[in-house]
Structure to design on (387 residues):
């Protein structure tokens, strides 16, 4: 696209001079000149055609002078439009005022066209830089909008209705939350029916952050849910998910997973921990117990692995709490971690609470501990209670 230049001057001779001097650039469609004879005419043209790049304006003109026109141009708030002011050599007071009011540069009469050509080229460099910056800004704003929508979609695919199993309401309480560190996160939780008495429960943390982690998170959740709903034992479910994810993994991405099958009638839980944080049981008597550390590898990184399983039984009033490392590794302004000791103390304080209050209580303590420190990782919690 040619650079559009509007020359504003009440002297008709200037039009001939400019078109003659810049004839080659005009012929090559590098420059496109337009002409107005006073500020009012120029302003009318600018309102009709908002794509002028350079305004070459005399200061002393009838009807509306150049300084007034410059004020009107500033009101348009178009940083990519550059004004070059023209006046007599002795008119330095007005030239100085024009420069103070935001003119890009000036030229004195009689105009040195060689010098004006250099000034126009300098203005074009600034215009191109500003336009590129504006384009990048618009792209960034578009990306931010897309990320916000992606974040909403990601939250929408996670279970958000509590209690999620009305038919088990007398024997089961469950609540969960996922708070991403960025617009989208790599953590997820899930729960689903397997048969009349059993539900699948899962929490996971994908390596990395941002969009790649969010995509891998969606794939991982879909695979684990699809395999888990077949009723396979937790270790077999994780093994199959690992084989499939290894084929989909790029950039050495992996995911830590805790997957359990819970019997809502008996309180029995079979589980497989694939490199994830060990969950806690808050017993009805107030004792806080952590499960043994996982000996299994995370999934999505190494094919052909076998996974060990575990089992436990929740008694009436016991609360089973799963979390990602965004909880225990949350840091405050001095880079001190929240840690497992604080988490255990929080769980003990929340003993007797329902699952929703347990999740909210942990989030509240982590937030209070972190203070003004920026959240560095996704924070995900899932709490399950046998009534």
């Amino acid at each position: 696209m040619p650079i559009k230049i509007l020359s504003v001057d009440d002297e008709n001779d200037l039009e001939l001079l400019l078109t003659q001097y810049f004839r080659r650039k005009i012929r090559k469609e590098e420059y496109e000149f337009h002409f107005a004879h006073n500020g009012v005419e120029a302003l009318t043209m600018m309102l009709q055609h908002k794509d002028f790049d350079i305004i070459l304006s005399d200061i002393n003109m009838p009807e509306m002078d150049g300084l007034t026109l410059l004020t009107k141009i500033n009101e348009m708030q178009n940083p990519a439009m550059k004004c070059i002011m023209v006046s007599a050599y002795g008119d330095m007071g007005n030239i100085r005022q024009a420069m103070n009011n935001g003119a890009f540069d000036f030229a004195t009469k009689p105009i040195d066209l060689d010098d004006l050509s250099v000034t126009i080229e300098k203005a074009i460099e600034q215009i191109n830089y500003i336009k590129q910056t504006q384009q990048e800004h618009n792209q960034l704003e578009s990306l931010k909008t897309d990320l916000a929508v992606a974040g909403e979609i990601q939250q929408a695919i996670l279970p958000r209705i509590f209690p999620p199993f009305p038919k088990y309401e007398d024997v089961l309480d469950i609540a969960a939350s996922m708070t991403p560190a960025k617009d989208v996160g790599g953590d997820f939780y899930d729960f689903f029916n397997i048969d009349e008495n059993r539900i699948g429960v899962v929490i996971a943390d994908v390596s990395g952050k941002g969009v790649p982690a969010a995509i891998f998170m969606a794939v991982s959740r879909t695979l684990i849910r699809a395999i888990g709903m077949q009723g396979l034992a937790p270790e077999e479910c994780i093994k199959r998910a690992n084989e499939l994810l290894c084929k989909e993994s790029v950039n050495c991405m992996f995911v830590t997973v805790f997957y359990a099958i819970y019997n809502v009638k008996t309180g029995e839980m079979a589980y497989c921990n694939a490199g994830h944080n060990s969950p806690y049981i808050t017993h009805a008597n107030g004792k806080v117990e952590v499960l043994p550390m996982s000996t299994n590898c995370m999934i999505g990184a190494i094919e052909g692995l076998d996974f060990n399983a575990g089992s436990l039984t929740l008694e009436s009033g016991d609360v089973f709490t799963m979390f990602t490392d965004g909880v225990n590794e949350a840091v405050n302004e001095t880079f001190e971690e929240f840690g497992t000791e604080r988490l255990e103390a929080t769980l003990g304080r929340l003993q007797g609470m329902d699952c929703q209050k347990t999740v909210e209580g942990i989030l509240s303590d982590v937030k209070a501990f972190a203070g003004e420190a920026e959240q560095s990782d996704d924070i995900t919690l899932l709490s399950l209670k046998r009534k």
